[in-house]
Structures are given as structure tokens and as C-alpha cells.
């Protein structure tokens, strides 16, 4: 399997959601090259979180955390409950249940995809 030369772009702090929306195709490309790398899925979830698409945000978060064992050594999985990309979704009962019910098994750090 071919690896992307630099996956650190997914861990950058961005200045706003429009930036990450523009990178959505890049994250999809990343998944096509390295489908086990969780932060590609996490950042796609951030895109859908910014667009208030609860179901897709949850779906991509589930994919991200299903692959959490494949983070780069020293990297931590973000906590979606602390991420501004999901701030509006934290008012949605379905989203809250999804992230809190599985949070106990997620190793998290307080970082953001923006």
C-alpha cells in the first residue's frame, strides 16, 4: 500500500471551517491512499460537523475511532466534544449520545481539526 509522504497536515490548526471544507477532497484522497489512518476520517467528520450533517459526522467519527490504533506514534485522537467543528452538533441529542456513549473507549486529547 502506498503511503502519503506527510500526514501532518491533518493535525494543523486552521482559522475557520471554510479552510477545512476546501480540504475535504484532500482528506478523501488520503482515505483512498491510507484507509486505516484515522485523522483523515476525523477531519471529514469535522467538515460534516461544520455543515450540521449529524449522520455523516457520526459515521465518519465512528470510522476514525475504529482506526485509532493507526495514529502516528505520539499522536492522539481528538475529542469531538471539545472540538469547535462540532459545537453546534453538541446541541443535538443524537450526536451527544453517539459521542458520549463511545467516548469511554476513545483515547482523546483536547485538540481541534481547525
How would you portray this structure in words?
The chain is mostly helical. It has one domain (about 10-110): Serine Threonine Protein Phosphatase 5, Tetratricopeptide repeat (Alpha Horseshoe), CATH 1.25.40. Helix content is about 45%, strand content about 5%. Strands 1-2 form a two-stranded parallel sheet. The longest helix is centred in the middle third of the chain and has 13 residues, at about 40-50. The chain starts with 16 loop residues before the first helix and ends in a 5-residue tail after the last strand. Mean pLDDT is about 80; it is low at about 1-15 and about 105-110.
Write the layout of secondary structure elements.
Layout lengths: L16 H6 L1 H10 L4 H13 L3 H13 L10 E2 L14 H11 L4 E2 L5
Parallel strand pairs: 1-2
How many beta strands in the DSSP annotation?
2
Average pLDDT rating: 78
As a percent range, the share of helical residues equals 40-55%
State the shape: globular
